[in-house]
């Protein structure tokens, strides 16, 4: 019997980040969402590419530049094929590029809705502790303490109390619970002597 249950949580955002702009048609600031469509133009040997967004209120479009006036030979063949086919995984990766979005607007709305896939990688339900390894493919707008509370069936105040008591250890220090989860982050929880140990272990994996 292992004293620690090891699990991997893959945390996937349900919704893409939405940049906020002034929409001329709506007459005020509105969030724009990615439409899932791309635009690729060729001018001689040079290419321009955009990710197309739509206003939440009126469907007015905004074309976010991916690159402009780039030599076709400088675009990786895989990226070029994905642009031409509007590959959904490629579009999603572009839509979650917060650095690129922040160069266009300071206001970006991030949803806190996520799906969590759990996989036990070691140990068993007789363990007295749990170690959670996070896989976060794209940025999410949910705080880590909210994620842990929801997925372990605990309150946020209980999560905070466990951290304060030294039972909950999180990569990134004390403030990590107040920030979104990071890819590769690890959380360790000591359940020894806790009455709801079995319920927490079951929820964890």
TrEMBL record:
It comes from the Bacteria. InterPro entries: DUF1062. This is DUF1062 domain-containing protein. It comes from Pleomorphomonas carboxyditropha.
């Amino acid at each position: 019997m292992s004293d620690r249950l090891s699990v991997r949580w893959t945390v996937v955002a349900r919704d893409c980040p939405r940049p906020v702009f002034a929409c001329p048609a709506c007459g005020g600031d509105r969030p724009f969402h990615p439409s899932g469509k791309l635009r690729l133009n060729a001018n001689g040997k040079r290419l321009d590419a955009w990710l197309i967004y739509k206003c939440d209120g009126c469907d007015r479009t905004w074309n976010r530049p991916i690159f402009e006036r780039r030599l076709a030979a400088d675009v990786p063949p895989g990226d070029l094929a994905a642009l031409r086919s509007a590959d959904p995984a490629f579009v999603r990766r572009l839509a979650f590029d917060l650095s690129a979005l922040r160069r266009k607007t300071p206001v970006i709305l991030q949803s806190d809705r996520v799906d969590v896939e759990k996989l036990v990688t070691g140990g068993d339900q007789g363990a007295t502790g749990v170690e959670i390894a996070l896989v976060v493919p794209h940025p999410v707008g949910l705080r880590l303490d909210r994620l842990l509370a929801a997925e372990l069936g605990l309150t946020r105040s209980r999560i905070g109390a466990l951290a304060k008591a030294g039972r909950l250890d999180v990569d990134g220090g004390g403030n990590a619970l107040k920030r979104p989860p990071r890819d590769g982050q690890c959380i360790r929880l000591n359940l020894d002597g806790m009455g709801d140990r079995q319920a927490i272990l079951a929820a964890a994996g």
